[in-house]
């Protein structure tokens, strides 16, 4: 297990790492140390070939991440606020653009920066007591770690604006109905659901999984860019051992054995 002050990073033989924000007494709120350690944790995950997928969650039963350190936010001015936002965007963009799938297990409150962290992950499994929200307008500001963009991409402009402009949170069932959550399960079963979903993903070709993530991200820059990236990724995969193995396994009616080459 990697040693951090505010995070726990546990790896397992199945290739799934669990990254836990470990400040339960503060409802796992984001502060400068958490953000710095998230950056370091992603570095470690990217460099570790034994890690193939990551589940991100929060310690305790009450919160995934209940927002940011409001006292720190209150001290910001225009210049420091812009820099604060850009640093957060950069860290969350590293998660979103990772070649390894990240899945948020949202257990309890995912508010403000916590909701933004969950949205930076590629998939979200929510417990039945999960609550999602971007309440920043009630503080006189807006989401600053990519939330205005990712929420709109996930749920559409009208619903995104409703959540941001009212600042009112939504519960897990509504989050799933709107497309913000992929699965909802009871708190004592949600980790198993998350591991099962991640296990299914890790059973697919790892190069193909990474390429699918990159093609979807390219589409956020515009349809033409997305289609071009899709064609290039598709073509590149045709020269891989995994593509040859996957197609031959299908034709021979056997399970494929992917190597990531």
In brief:
By secondary structure, this protein is of the alpha/beta class. The protein has helices at residues 32-47, 70-74, 78-96, 113-120, 147-155, 157-166, 172-178, 190-202, 206-219, 223-237, 241-251; strands spanning 2-3, 7-10, 16-21, 53-58, 63-65, 102-106, 109-111, 123-127, 131-133, 170-171, 183-185.
Report on the structure:
- The longest helix is centred in the middle third of the chain and has 19 residues, at 78-96.
- The protein folds into 2 domains: 2-202, Alpha-Beta Complex (2-enoyl-CoA Hydratase, Chain A, domain 1), CATH 3.90.226; 206-251.
- The two termini are 28 Å apart.
- With 261 residues, the protein is of the alpha/beta class.
- Helices cover 49% and strands 16% of the residues.
Helix-strand layout with pairing:
Blueprint: E1 2-3, E2 7-10, E3 16-21, H1 32-47, E4 53-58, E5 63-65, H2 70-74, H3 78-96, E6 102-106, E7 109-111, H4 113-120, E8 123-127, E9 131-133, H5 147-155, H6 157-166, E10 170-171, H7 172-178, E11 183-185, H8 190-202, H9 206-219, H10 223-237, H11 241-251
Parallel strand pairs: 3-4, 4-6, 5-7, 6-8, 7-9, 8-11
Antiparallel strand pairs: 1-2, 2-3, 9-10
Count the strands? 11
The class by helix and strand makeup works out as: alpha/beta
- Quaternary organization: single chain
How many structural domains are formed by the residues?
A: 2
Principal-axis shape: globular
Low-confidence stretches: none
CATH superfamily of the largest domain: 2-enoyl-CoA Hydratase, Chain A, domain 1
Helix content: 40-55%
